[in-house]
Amino acid sequence: MIPQSRYTARPMKHCDTLISPRWCIPVRPSGEVLLEHAVIVTDGRIVDVLPLTDAGQKYQPSISLDRPDHVLIPGFVNAHTHAAMTLMRGFADDLPLEAWLNEGIWPAEKRWVSEDMVRDGTELAIAEMLRGGVTCFSDQYWYPETVAESAVDLHIRANVGTPIIEFPTAWAGSLTEYLEKGSELVHDAYADHPLITSCFAPQSSAALSDDGFVELRVLADQLDVPIQIHLHETAKEIENSLEKTGMRPFERLNQLGLVNSSLLAVHAVHMEDDEIAKMAETSVSIAHCPQSNLKLASGIAPIIDYRAAGVTVGLGTDGAASNNTLDMLSEMRIAALLAKARADDASALSATAALSMATLDSAASLGLANDIGSIEAGKWADLTCVNLSPLHSQPVYDPVSQLVYTARAEQVSDVWVAGHHQLENGDLTHIDTASIRARGNEWRQRFSGEISWS
Amino acid sequence: MIPQSRYTARPMKHCDTLISPRWCIPVRPSGEVLLEHAVIVTDGRIVDVLPLTDAGQKYQPSISLDRPDHVLIPGFVNAHTHAAMTLMRGFADDLPLEAWLNEGIWPAEKRWVSEDMVRDGTELAIAEMLRGGVTCFSDQYWYPETVAESAVDLHIRANVGTPIIEFPTAWAGSLTEYLEKGSELVHDAYADHPLITSCFAPQSSAALSDDGFVELRVLADQLDVPIQIHLHETAKEIENSLEKTGMRPFERLNQLGLVNSSLLAVHAVHMEDDEIAKMAETSVSIAHCPQSNLKLASGIAPIIDYRAAGVTVGLGTDGAASNNTLDMLSEMRIAALLAKARADDASALSATAALSMATLDSAASLGLANDIGSIEAGKWADLTCVNLSPLHSQPVYDPVSQLVYTARAEQVSDVWVAGHHQLENGDLTHIDTASIRARGNEWRQRFSGEISWS
């Protein structure tokens, strides 16, 4: 037998998809912009990122896609939302926070939240998010099993939070039942599912007694599931806690043993220096929701301080009742702009850092940084392609800058989730958007009292 | 002769265009949302706003347009920009203000600004603005006569500012020459032009000596032309003035006789209470540019205080080198959100108030409120139509809220400027966008040193 020469051309490898964008921004290594490169996808995973000429010699793709005016980035990871609340988009705007909750949102939810409402609202949210380049979202809402089902049906990645409180709702009657239903979701229904992960999501520190938090912590530790909670969103929340417990919410959670690397603090608008140091020391992560914090007049979170201390800061849109879109491009831009103003320094947060917040840092905040958030071989092929040819993004000196400071969601041309091509040249190819729009409008009529529940 | 019965049907009147949107928001009266109404346009003017059924009996239009998912509003008035700087979009991002100006923008301008550069950059800006629903912009840049020409060529309304300084540039050699060229623009070239008005635009209080300001004031009074100036944009600007003149810039302008109803203070980020009272008393207007103020870390202007005092606050995008788009929908949303956060009150600035800022108040700040800024019979037919059917704007509880908090520029379907249909169903029908894009890219190559000037 003649040994094969090392100079013989190697056989071409089959792959599912070869994507060749004008620019590829892998996010890790930070700051890198690849020109004339291809991203290779097979079986839902990124298998290679290499120069286009090498790709042509090495891979034989089923589908090959040129995107000559486009930048390819990791799919956006929306670190915090309440997806079904798209049905309440603009329902109670321009009200002070207390009135917004007590007179607007909560009575409407009490009247209308149901499995059907959650399905219809979540589908509207997922369609909007896929259209805008979001490939993963972390949710916190009633009927989380329905949220998970919708995510699987419409094929988007989701980190599904089980609401945990101590009073009965239509979904569960007691703390025990909330915890049981959460365990079921984590353990039985979606264990090792390729798209779904879970977390426990107490609404705020006021949602549970000390005993309740301890019970939650024991279960979360046992199941190895993270906890996400609205924390220090408003000055009022901190005041109320001080009055009731003598402690700020963060300190109370710390004493109850919840301050650790499994904790995702949502909002974190008002934090003292010692709290920031403690968060860094214990690897607590943050979900920053700047537009919601402005709209509800909660304040501007000191994310430059968090980042300087080494705290992971992910980015989220919050729900559509307080934003009012689930648009991560807009959220990323405003996060960058606000950070500069808050820090009194125009170089405080660069476009590169903002993109990392919206992708890899968000993934890290959800404990998913090994699986998604950057374009690296081995990770899921969760990818977003953005067209920079529209006039308002021209000319292009720096694609990262144009992406962060000029691009709008309509410029997202293609989205892949675990290799599935969910948005193709701006079309949501697998989603019945007419039905979603019609159901959204029916819910509007119910919420407004124009039609009664049938 | 038999007298005509008063009950005989009146003859139908001819009109150019009948537009029937789902919702019409005239902006004046404030808060009004008209359903099943038509707007009638003839000879470039709005001639009637009336119920659709009446319109069918009264008018015989050449063109009749149904916009069944759309909201019709007055065209956006961009109260402050430097249009040609679109060519420097993203050229020097994420730098502190001093470095941005001294190392990025100014050397590049010194090297490259010319009549051709201003034409190409201004056309890019105009195309972007028309696409995004802007029907009028106030500009401040070199070669203002070229800005005016481009505006007329591409048919958009412009308030063209003549730069006034005391040092020589490629465009003019001395204060006298700047003033002469400005007078020419106001007096000879565009007097009574239907699309063009003018103003004098000293860059900042540091641009002129006391004598220079007095000379400018005398001429502006004589020609009855407004003055716009960057004023109290940064804390540093105020410091420098205090050091050099012993006065804050506003106080200095006041002593020199420039603080009056002809003054448009651009930015006005840092104003003391007594200065606000003085602005109200003297009817000074403000051009608020929130995104630029964030991006350059200048601060957040106290527009709730201005409005409470009775000061007119218009809205502008500033130039694309510091924003980085000329997108008034985005500017309007951020203005509303920031005002809430700055005032610590989620009801501080409503969606209705934000829309008024971006249209009628901007028009008023430029002295054009009798001609544009609202949908009223007699005003120019400067109109913008926005489609609210995309999923991220659904469902629609309140069209004003959806417009301000969810709509993106791609949803602008139609734009009329003085009755000319410049954007039709999302297409810039009269503009060669390929040529504009190509020229933009050539300038990028020159600015980046990739090609030399030919």
Structure description:
2 copies of one chain form a homodimer. Chain A has 454 residues and is α/β, with parallel strands linked by helices. Chain A folds into 2 domains: 13-74 and 380-418, Urease, subunit C, domain 1 (Roll); 76-365, Metal-dependent hydrolases (TIM Barrel), CATH 3.20.20. Helix content of chain A is 39%, strand content 23%. Chain A has 15 helices and 17 strands. Chain A has helices spanning 52-58, 97-112, 115-131, 144-154, 175-189, 210-223, 235-245, 249-255, 273-282, 290-295, 303-309, 328-343, 351-365, 399-406, 433-447; strands at residues 13-24, 34-35, 37-42, 45-51, 59-74, 76-81, 134-140, 157-164, 196-202, 227-231, 263-267, 285-288, 313-315, 383-387, 412-417, 420-424, 427-428. In chain A, strands 1, 2, 3, 4, 5, 14, 15, 16 and 17 form a 9-stranded mixed beta sheet that branches. In chain A, β8, α5 and β9 (196-202) form a beta-alpha-beta unit. The longest helix of chain A has 17 residues, at 115-131. The radius of gyration of chain A is 22 Å and the shape is globular. The termini of chain A are far apart. The mean pLDDT of chain A is 95. The interface between A and B is large, with 70 and 70 residues.
Counting DSSP H or I runs of 4 or more residues, the number of helices of chain A is: 15
CATH class of the largest domain in chain A: Alpha Beta
At CATH level 2, the architecture of the largest domain in chain A is: Alpha-Beta Barrel
> Greatest interface and its residue counts?
A-B, 70 and 70 residues
Percent strand of chain A equals: 15-25%
Which quaternary structure do these chains form? Answer: homodimer
Instruction: State the major sheet of chain A.
Output: 9 strands, mixed
Helix content of chain A: 25-40%
Based on CA inertia axes, which overall geometry of chain A fits? globular
